[in-house]
Amino acid sequence: MGEDRATDPGAPRIVTVAGETRRPRRMAGARQAQQWLLTLLPAFPVLLLVLRLWQLSHQDMSTMLLLVQYVSPLGLLSALLIALVWAFPVVVLAFGVLGRLLRLSAPDRFDPERSLLASGTARTPGWVISAAVALGALTWQLRFLPSLLMLALWLLALRTRYLHPDQPTRVLLVSVALPVAAAVLAYSVLGPAIWTACQHREWATAALLAVPPAATVLLTGPIPGWIAPALTHGLAFTVATVLPVVMGAVFLRVPLLPTAAIEVVPSESARTSPAATPATDDGAPAEGSGAGPSPVAAADPEVVLGALIAVTDTSTIVLDRAATVRFVPNGWVESQVLCPQVTSVPYSLVSVRGWPVEETALDWMMPRKPVADPDVRCAGRLPSAR
Protein backbone atom coordinates (compact mmCIF):
# COMPACT_ATOMS: atom_id res chain seq x y z
CA MET A 1 0.00 0.00 0.00
CA GLY A 2 3.02 2.25 0.16
CA GLU A 3 1.94 4.03 3.34
CA ASP A 4 2.40 1.59 6.22
CA ARG A 5 5.69 1.47 8.01
CA ALA A 6 7.29 -1.76 9.08
CA THR A 7 6.96 -0.80 12.76
CA ASP A 8 3.26 -0.10 12.70
CA PRO A 9 2.09 0.17 16.33
CA GLY A 10 -1.40 -0.76 15.24
CA ALA A 11 -0.39 -4.08 13.72
CA PRO A 12 -1.31 -7.22 15.66
CA ARG A 13 1.50 -8.56 17.82
CA ILE A 14 3.19 -11.79 16.80
CA VAL A 15 4.10 -14.22 19.57
CA THR A 16 6.89 -16.79 19.14
CA VAL A 17 6.54 -19.93 21.26
CA ALA A 18 9.14 -22.75 20.96
CA GLY A 19 10.24 -21.53 17.58
CA GLU A 20 6.66 -21.41 16.27
CA THR A 21 5.07 -18.15 15.26
CA ARG A 22 1.53 -17.71 16.49
CA ARG A 23 -0.94 -14.90 16.22
CA PRO A 24 -3.32 -14.23 19.11
CA ARG A 25 -6.64 -16.01 18.74
CA ARG A 26 -9.32 -13.43 19.11
CA MET A 27 -12.42 -12.34 17.28
CA ALA A 28 -11.53 -9.18 15.38
CA GLY A 29 -14.23 -6.52 15.85
CA ALA A 30 -13.21 -4.60 12.74
CA ARG A 31 -13.38 -7.72 10.62
CA GLN A 32 -16.89 -8.48 11.85
CA ALA A 33 -18.00 -4.90 11.25
CA GLN A 34 -16.48 -4.93 7.79
CA GLN A 35 -18.33 -8.12 6.89
CA TRP A 36 -21.63 -6.61 8.02
CA LEU A 37 -20.86 -3.39 6.12
CA LEU A 38 -20.09 -5.24 2.90
CA THR A 39 -23.30 -7.23 3.33
CA LEU A 40 -25.57 -4.26 3.95
CA LEU A 41 -23.91 -1.74 1.64
CA PRO A 42 -25.51 -3.03 -1.60
CA ALA A 43 -28.94 -2.73 0.05
CA PHE A 44 -28.59 1.05 0.43
CA PRO A 45 -28.85 1.93 -3.30
CA VAL A 46 -31.77 -0.51 -3.67
CA LEU A 47 -33.51 1.17 -0.74
CA LEU A 48 -32.99 4.59 -2.31
CA LEU A 49 -34.42 3.41 -5.64
CA VAL A 50 -37.48 1.87 -3.98
CA LEU A 51 -38.11 5.02 -1.94
CA ARG A 52 -37.80 7.15 -5.07
CA LEU A 53 -40.36 5.04 -6.94
CA TRP A 54 -42.63 5.06 -3.90
CA GLN A 55 -42.46 8.84 -3.79
CA LEU A 56 -42.95 9.17 -7.56
CA SER A 57 -46.10 7.03 -7.36
CA HIS A 58 -47.48 9.24 -4.53
CA GLN A 59 -47.59 6.23 -2.22
CA ASP A 60 -49.94 4.24 -4.48
CA MET A 61 -48.92 0.61 -4.65
CA SER A 62 -50.51 -0.10 -8.05
CA THR A 63 -48.72 2.86 -9.63
CA MET A 64 -45.45 1.82 -8.02
CA LEU A 65 -45.75 -1.73 -9.36
CA LEU A 66 -46.42 -0.31 -12.82
CA LEU A 67 -43.31 1.85 -12.59
CA VAL A 68 -41.25 -1.12 -11.46
CA GLN A 69 -42.50 -3.06 -14.49
CA TYR A 70 -41.60 -0.45 -17.09
CA VAL A 71 -38.81 1.72 -15.66
CA SER A 72 -35.38 0.60 -16.85
CA PRO A 73 -33.00 -0.56 -14.08
CA LEU A 74 -30.11 0.94 -16.05
CA GLY A 75 -31.89 4.30 -16.07
CA LEU A 76 -32.43 4.10 -12.32
CA LEU A 77 -28.78 3.27 -11.67
CA SER A 78 -27.63 6.04 -14.04
CA ALA A 79 -29.75 8.61 -12.22
CA LEU A 80 -28.43 7.33 -8.88
CA LEU A 81 -24.82 7.52 -10.02
CA ILE A 82 -25.09 11.00 -11.52
CA ALA A 83 -26.92 12.38 -8.49
CA LEU A 84 -24.64 10.89 -5.84
CA VAL A 85 -21.22 10.82 -7.51
CA TRP A 86 -20.12 13.61 -5.16
CA ALA A 87 -20.54 11.34 -2.13
CA PHE A 88 -17.55 9.11 -2.93
CA PRO A 89 -14.95 11.87 -2.31
CA VAL A 90 -16.75 12.85 0.89
CA VAL A 91 -16.51 9.33 2.30
CA VAL A 92 -12.91 8.68 1.26
CA LEU A 93 -11.50 12.05 2.32
CA ALA A 94 -13.42 12.47 5.58
CA PHE A 95 -12.66 9.00 6.90
CA GLY A 96 -9.12 9.23 5.53
CA VAL A 97 -8.40 12.38 7.55
CA LEU A 98 -9.95 10.98 10.73
CA GLY A 99 -8.12 7.66 10.44
CA ARG A 100 -4.72 9.23 9.80
CA LEU A 101 -5.26 11.70 12.61
CA LEU A 102 -5.99 8.83 14.99
CA ARG A 103 -2.91 6.90 13.84
CA LEU A 104 -0.65 9.90 14.31
CA SER A 105 -2.12 11.18 17.60
CA ALA A 106 -2.79 7.91 19.46
CA PRO A 107 -0.73 5.12 17.86
CA ASP A 108 -1.44 2.80 20.76
CA ARG A 109 -5.19 3.03 20.04
CA PHE A 110 -4.82 2.51 16.29
CA ASP A 111 -5.73 -1.16 15.98
CA PRO A 112 -6.91 -2.30 12.51
CA GLU A 113 -8.16 -5.56 14.05
CA ARG A 114 -10.64 -3.82 16.35
CA SER A 115 -11.44 -0.42 14.81
CA LEU A 116 -13.23 -0.15 11.47
CA LEU A 117 -11.84 3.38 11.04
CA ALA A 118 -8.29 2.13 11.54
CA SER A 119 -8.90 -0.86 9.29
CA GLY A 120 -10.14 1.32 6.45
CA THR A 121 -7.21 3.70 6.84
CA ALA A 122 -4.63 0.91 6.76
CA ARG A 123 -6.17 -0.71 3.68
CA THR A 124 -6.86 2.37 1.54
CA PRO A 125 -4.13 2.83 -1.11
CA GLY A 126 -2.84 6.23 -2.08
CA TRP A 127 -4.28 6.17 -5.59
CA VAL A 128 -7.81 5.98 -4.16
CA ILE A 129 -7.15 9.22 -2.25
CA SER A 130 -5.83 10.88 -5.40
CA ALA A 131 -8.83 9.69 -7.42
CA ALA A 132 -11.21 11.01 -4.76
CA VAL A 133 -9.56 14.44 -4.83
CA ALA A 134 -9.75 14.57 -8.64
CA LEU A 135 -13.39 13.45 -8.66
CA GLY A 136 -14.28 16.01 -6.01
CA ALA A 137 -12.61 18.78 -8.01
CA LEU A 138 -14.87 17.92 -10.96
CA THR A 139 -18.17 17.20 -9.20
CA TRP A 140 -18.24 19.53 -6.17
CA GLN A 141 -19.70 22.99 -6.48
CA LEU A 142 -17.27 25.90 -6.44
CA ARG A 143 -18.25 26.93 -2.92
CA PHE A 144 -17.12 23.50 -1.63
CA LEU A 145 -13.76 23.49 -3.40
CA PRO A 146 -11.97 25.35 -0.55
CA SER A 147 -13.10 22.52 1.75
CA LEU A 148 -11.73 20.01 -0.74
CA LEU A 149 -8.39 21.84 -0.74
CA MET A 150 -8.37 21.79 3.07
CA LEU A 151 -9.03 18.04 3.28
CA ALA A 152 -6.41 17.26 0.63
CA LEU A 153 -3.71 19.30 2.40
CA TRP A 154 -4.61 17.74 5.75
CA LEU A 155 -4.20 14.27 4.28
CA LEU A 156 -0.87 15.18 2.68
CA ALA A 157 0.49 16.71 5.90
CA LEU A 158 -0.63 13.81 8.12
CA ARG A 159 0.78 11.27 5.69
CA THR A 160 4.13 13.10 5.51
CA ARG A 161 4.41 13.31 9.30
CA TYR A 162 3.72 9.59 9.61
CA LEU A 163 6.05 8.38 6.85
CA HIS A 164 8.94 10.84 7.35
CA PRO A 165 9.19 11.73 11.06
CA ASP A 166 12.97 11.97 10.79
CA GLN A 167 12.89 14.71 8.11
CA PRO A 168 11.84 17.92 9.91
CA THR A 169 12.50 20.14 6.89
CA ARG A 170 10.18 18.14 4.71
CA VAL A 171 7.55 18.01 7.43
CA LEU A 172 7.80 21.79 7.93
CA LEU A 173 7.37 22.49 4.21
CA VAL A 174 4.34 20.23 3.84
CA SER A 175 2.70 21.03 7.18
CA VAL A 176 3.27 24.78 7.40
CA ALA A 177 4.67 26.39 4.27
CA LEU A 178 2.36 24.67 1.78
CA PRO A 179 -0.90 25.35 3.71
CA VAL A 180 0.07 29.02 4.23
CA ALA A 181 0.88 29.45 0.55
CA ALA A 182 -2.37 27.74 -0.45
CA ALA A 183 -4.35 30.00 1.91
CA VAL A 184 -2.74 33.14 0.49
CA LEU A 185 -3.47 32.01 -3.07
CA ALA A 186 -7.04 31.04 -2.20
CA TYR A 187 -7.80 34.40 -0.57
CA SER A 188 -6.31 36.29 -3.50
CA VAL A 189 -8.73 34.48 -5.82
CA LEU A 190 -11.76 34.23 -3.53
CA GLY A 191 -11.45 37.61 -1.82
CA PRO A 192 -13.90 39.52 -4.09
CA ALA A 193 -16.40 36.67 -3.92
CA ILE A 194 -16.23 36.59 -0.11
CA TRP A 195 -16.87 40.34 0.01
CA THR A 196 -19.80 40.02 -2.40
CA ALA A 197 -21.31 37.22 -0.32
CA CYS A 198 -21.09 39.37 2.80
CA GLN A 199 -22.72 42.29 1.00
CA HIS A 200 -25.64 40.10 -0.08
CA ARG A 201 -25.85 38.54 3.42
CA GLU A 202 -25.10 35.06 2.10
CA TRP A 203 -23.33 34.05 5.27
CA ALA A 204 -23.20 30.32 4.48
CA THR A 205 -21.49 30.97 1.14
CA ALA A 206 -19.08 33.44 2.75
CA ALA A 207 -18.18 30.90 5.46
CA LEU A 208 -17.63 28.10 2.91
CA LEU A 209 -15.27 30.33 0.95
CA ALA A 210 -13.45 32.04 3.84
CA VAL A 211 -13.07 29.47 6.65
CA PRO A 212 -11.43 26.41 4.98
CA PRO A 213 -8.27 28.18 3.68
CA ALA A 214 -7.52 29.51 7.17
CA ALA A 215 -8.38 26.17 8.80
CA THR A 216 -5.90 24.34 6.56
CA VAL A 217 -3.00 25.14 8.90
CA LEU A 218 -4.83 23.91 12.02
CA LEU A 219 -4.89 20.13 11.52
CA THR A 220 -1.61 19.30 9.87
CA GLY A 221 -0.23 17.60 12.96
CA PRO A 222 -1.29 15.38 15.87
CA ILE A 223 -3.80 16.37 18.52
CA PRO A 224 -3.64 15.36 22.23
CA GLY A 225 -3.68 11.59 22.46
CA TRP A 226 -6.24 11.44 25.27
CA ILE A 227 -8.95 13.04 23.13
CA ALA A 228 -8.00 11.64 19.72
CA PRO A 229 -9.89 8.28 19.91
CA ALA A 230 -13.14 9.79 21.15
CA LEU A 231 -12.98 12.73 18.74
CA THR A 232 -12.13 10.77 15.61
CA HIS A 233 -14.58 7.94 16.23
CA GLY A 234 -17.31 10.40 17.23
CA LEU A 235 -16.88 12.41 14.04
CA ALA A 236 -16.73 9.21 11.99
CA PHE A 237 -20.05 8.01 13.44
CA THR A 238 -21.56 11.46 12.80
CA VAL A 239 -20.52 11.42 9.15
CA ALA A 240 -21.76 7.85 8.75
CA THR A 241 -25.15 8.85 10.20
CA VAL A 242 -25.70 12.17 8.45
CA LEU A 243 -24.36 11.34 4.99
CA PRO A 244 -26.97 8.66 4.07
CA VAL A 245 -29.76 11.06 5.09
CA VAL A 246 -28.33 13.80 2.88
CA MET A 247 -27.85 11.38 -0.01
CA GLY A 248 -31.45 10.23 0.30
CA ALA A 249 -32.77 13.79 0.39
CA VAL A 250 -30.79 14.65 -2.75
CA PHE A 251 -31.80 11.55 -4.68
CA LEU A 252 -35.51 11.93 -3.90
CA ARG A 253 -35.48 15.12 -6.00
CA VAL A 254 -33.85 13.54 -9.04
CA PRO A 255 -36.14 12.93 -12.05
CA LEU A 256 -36.28 9.29 -13.12
CA LEU A 257 -38.60 9.51 -16.13
CA PRO A 258 -38.53 11.84 -19.13
CA THR A 259 -41.07 14.64 -19.12
CA ALA A 260 -43.17 14.67 -22.29
CA ALA A 261 -46.08 16.68 -23.64
CA ILE A 262 -48.49 14.58 -25.72
CA GLU A 263 -51.09 16.22 -27.90
CA VAL A 264 -54.17 13.98 -27.75
CA VAL A 265 -56.90 14.23 -30.40
CA PRO A 266 -59.59 11.59 -29.71
CA SER A 267 -61.36 9.89 -32.61
CA GLU A 268 -64.91 10.83 -33.56
CA SER A 269 -66.33 7.71 -31.88
CA ALA A 270 -64.76 8.85 -28.61
CA ARG A 271 -66.05 12.40 -29.00
CA THR A 272 -69.66 11.14 -29.02
CA SER A 273 -69.70 8.29 -26.55
CA PRO A 274 -72.96 6.40 -25.80
CA ALA A 275 -71.86 6.24 -22.20
CA ALA A 276 -72.98 9.84 -21.79
CA THR A 277 -76.59 9.04 -22.85
CA PRO A 278 -79.00 8.03 -20.06
CA ALA A 279 -80.67 4.68 -20.69
CA THR A 280 -83.62 2.70 -19.36
CA ASP A 281 -83.50 -0.82 -17.99
CA ASP A 282 -83.98 -2.38 -21.43
CA GLY A 283 -81.07 -0.43 -22.88
CA ALA A 284 -83.18 2.08 -24.91
CA PRO A 285 -82.46 5.77 -24.61
CA ALA A 286 -84.45 7.46 -21.89
CA GLU A 287 -87.22 9.90 -22.79
CA GLY A 288 -86.09 13.46 -23.25
CA SER A 289 -82.49 12.45 -23.65
CA GLY A 290 -82.39 13.09 -27.39
CA ALA A 291 -82.02 10.75 -30.32
CA GLY A 292 -78.25 11.07 -30.71
CA PRO A 293 -75.43 10.52 -28.27
CA SER A 294 -74.18 13.41 -26.15
CA PRO A 295 -70.69 14.84 -26.56
CA VAL A 296 -68.13 13.95 -23.92
CA ALA A 297 -66.16 16.88 -22.55
CA ALA A 298 -63.18 14.70 -21.69
CA ALA A 299 -62.88 13.66 -25.32
CA ASP A 300 -61.90 17.14 -26.51
CA PRO A 301 -58.36 17.65 -27.81
CA GLU A 302 -55.92 18.23 -25.00
CA VAL A 303 -52.27 18.14 -24.04
CA VAL A 304 -51.27 15.48 -21.54
CA LEU A 305 -48.18 16.68 -19.68
CA GLY A 306 -46.29 14.36 -17.40
CA ALA A 307 -43.69 11.62 -17.04
CA LEU A 308 -43.59 9.21 -19.96
CA ILE A 309 -43.57 5.66 -18.58
CA ALA A 310 -43.72 3.48 -21.68
CA VAL A 311 -45.18 3.13 -25.18
CA THR A 312 -46.82 -0.23 -25.81
CA ASP A 313 -48.42 -1.66 -28.94
CA THR A 314 -51.79 -0.17 -28.06
CA SER A 315 -51.27 2.82 -25.78
CA THR A 316 -48.91 5.43 -24.43
CA ILE A 317 -48.63 5.31 -20.65
CA VAL A 318 -48.11 8.68 -18.94
CA LEU A 319 -47.96 9.67 -15.28
CA ASP A 320 -49.49 13.15 -15.30
CA ARG A 321 -48.91 15.97 -12.86
CA ALA A 322 -51.74 14.80 -10.63
CA ALA A 323 -49.98 11.40 -10.19
CA THR A 324 -52.67 9.74 -12.30
CA VAL A 325 -51.68 7.06 -14.78
CA ARG A 326 -53.12 7.83 -18.22
CA PHE A 327 -53.40 5.15 -20.89
CA VAL A 328 -53.64 7.13 -24.13
CA PRO A 329 -54.49 5.05 -27.24
CA ASN A 330 -51.76 5.38 -29.82
CA GLY A 331 -54.33 6.30 -32.47
CA TRP A 332 -55.21 9.41 -30.48
CA VAL A 333 -51.64 10.73 -30.27
CA GLU A 334 -51.36 13.62 -32.71
CA SER A 335 -47.85 14.70 -31.67
CA GLN A 336 -45.49 14.57 -28.73
CA VAL A 337 -42.45 16.50 -27.64
CA LEU A 338 -39.78 15.93 -25.03
CA CYS A 339 -39.80 18.76 -22.50
CA PRO A 340 -36.57 19.83 -20.82
CA GLN A 341 -36.25 19.40 -17.10
CA VAL A 342 -37.00 22.48 -15.06
CA THR A 343 -33.75 24.06 -13.98
CA SER A 344 -33.48 25.21 -10.41
CA VAL A 345 -33.35 28.92 -9.79
CA PRO A 346 -29.86 29.97 -8.58
CA TYR A 347 -29.86 30.83 -4.92
CA SER A 348 -26.56 32.65 -4.76
CA LEU A 349 -25.54 35.76 -6.70
CA VAL A 350 -21.86 35.20 -5.95
CA SER A 351 -19.40 34.20 -8.65
CA VAL A 352 -15.63 33.84 -8.83
CA ARG A 353 -14.31 35.44 -12.01
CA GLY A 354 -17.54 34.64 -13.82
CA TRP A 355 -17.88 31.15 -12.34
CA PRO A 356 -21.10 30.87 -10.24
CA VAL A 357 -20.47 29.27 -6.87
CA GLU A 358 -23.35 26.83 -7.39
CA GLU A 359 -21.83 25.28 -10.52
CA THR A 360 -19.33 22.45 -10.67
CA ALA A 361 -16.18 22.41 -12.75
CA LEU A 362 -17.77 19.73 -14.92
CA ASP A 363 -20.74 21.99 -15.64
CA TRP A 364 -18.42 24.90 -16.32
CA MET A 365 -16.33 22.95 -18.83
CA MET A 366 -19.21 21.40 -20.74
CA PRO A 367 -20.64 23.31 -23.73
CA ARG A 368 -23.82 25.22 -23.06
CA LYS A 369 -27.05 24.07 -24.66
CA PRO A 370 -28.35 26.70 -27.08
CA VAL A 371 -31.38 28.57 -25.80
CA ALA A 372 -34.50 27.84 -27.86
CA ASP A 373 -38.08 29.05 -27.62
CA PRO A 374 -40.09 26.73 -25.36
CA ASP A 375 -42.72 24.60 -26.97
CA VAL A 376 -46.24 25.64 -26.01
CA ARG A 377 -47.18 22.00 -25.46
CA CYS A 378 -44.71 21.86 -22.56
CA ALA A 379 -46.86 24.53 -20.92
CA GLY A 380 -49.97 22.37 -21.32
CA ARG A 381 -51.44 24.37 -24.24
CA LEU A 382 -52.48 23.21 -27.68
CA PRO A 383 -50.39 24.47 -30.62
CA SER A 384 -53.37 26.39 -31.96
CA ALA A 385 -53.54 28.40 -28.74
CA ARG A 386 -50.28 30.22 -29.34
Number of DSSP helical runs: 13
Give the structural class. alpha+beta
The biggest beta sheet reads: 5 strands, antiparallel
Based on DSSP secondary structure assignment, what is the total number of beta strands? 9
Q: List low-confidence stretches.
A: 6-27, 270-298
Mean pLDDT over the residues: 80
Strands of the widest sheet, in order across it, are: 6-5-4-3-7
N-to-C SSE series? EEHHHHHHHHHHHEHEEEEEEH
Ends apart, CA distance between termini = 66 Å
**Strand proportion:** 5-15%
Task: Describe this protein's structure.
The chain has 386 residues and is α+β, with helices and mostly antiparallel strands. The chain is built from 13 helices and nine strands. The chain has helices spanning 29-40, 43-56, 61-70, 73-84, 87-105, 116-123, 126-139, 145-163, 168-199, 203-215, 228-251, 268-271, 361-365, and strands at 15-17, 20-22, 259-264, 302-311, 315-320, 325-329, 333-338, 351-352, 355-356. The strands form three sheets. It has a five-stranded antiparallel sheet with strand order 6-5-4-3-7. 24% of the residues are buried.
Set out the fold topology.
Elements: E1 15-17, E2 20-22, H1 29-40, H2 43-56, H3 61-70, H4 73-84, H5 87-105, H6 116-123, H7 126-139, H8 145-163, H9 168-199, H10 203-215, H11 228-251, E3 259-264, H12 268-271, E4 302-311, E5 315-320, E6 325-329, E7 333-338, E8 351-352, E9 355-356, H13 361-365
Antiparallel strand pairs: 1-2, 3-4, 3-7, 4-5, 5-6, 8-9
Helix pairs in contact: 1-6, 5-6, 5-7, 5-8, 5-11, 8-9, 8-10, 9-10
